[in-house]
Design brief:
InterPro entries: Dimeric_a/b-barrel. The protein is an alpha+beta fold and 113 residues long. It is 28% helix and 27% strand. The protein has two helices and six strands, in the order βαββββαβ. It has helices at residues 20-36, 84-98; strands at residues 2-8, 40-45, 53-55, 61-63, 75-81, 103-106. The strands form two sheets. The chain has a four-stranded antiparallel β-sheet with strand order 2-5-1-6, with helices on one face. Strands 3-4 form a two-stranded antiparallel sheet. A hairpin with a 5-residue loop joins strand 3 (53-55) and strand 4 (61-63). The longest helix is centred in the first third of the chain and has 17 residues, at 20-36.
């Protein structure tokens, strides 16, 4: 089985006023279903109030991420699934719950992870 990243940037989530509570409820319901199905690995959102830190091999820490890279924000879910088709089905369910399209990626297989 492969691990799939289902994600969206913060800017993609345009929710009308008054619908945030329903979005939260619906999104948590899909995650609860993924957990019950045994396919949930990890999920959450980037805390945008905490700035990234760039850590060098010698342990030096610089505030901020890579200056040339796009900002990383939004929500992420990692599921372990038997096929891309199944990943698409879960991504569609998350998209419906979150009211925004989801980006789907597969992690490369690493036998040591």
């Amino acid at each position: 089985m492969a691990k799939y990243l289902i994600s969206f940037p913060s800017a993609a989530m345009v929710v009308p006023n008054g619908e945030w509570e329903a979005v939260g409820r619906d999104a948590h319901a899909v995650i609860d279903e993924a957990k019950a199905a045994g396919v949930y690995v990890f999920g959450g959102g980037i805390d945008e109030d905490v700035p990234p830190a760039l850590v060098s091999a010698d342990g030096t820490v610089a505030e901020g991420g890579y200056p040339w890279a796009p900002q990383l924000d939004g929500g992420f879910t990692v599921l372990e699934l038997p096929s891309r088709e199944e990943a698409v089905r879960w991504a569609a369910r998350i998209a419906k719950a979150c009211r925004c399209d989801q980006e789907l990626r597969v992690f490369q297989f690493d036998p040591q992870s």
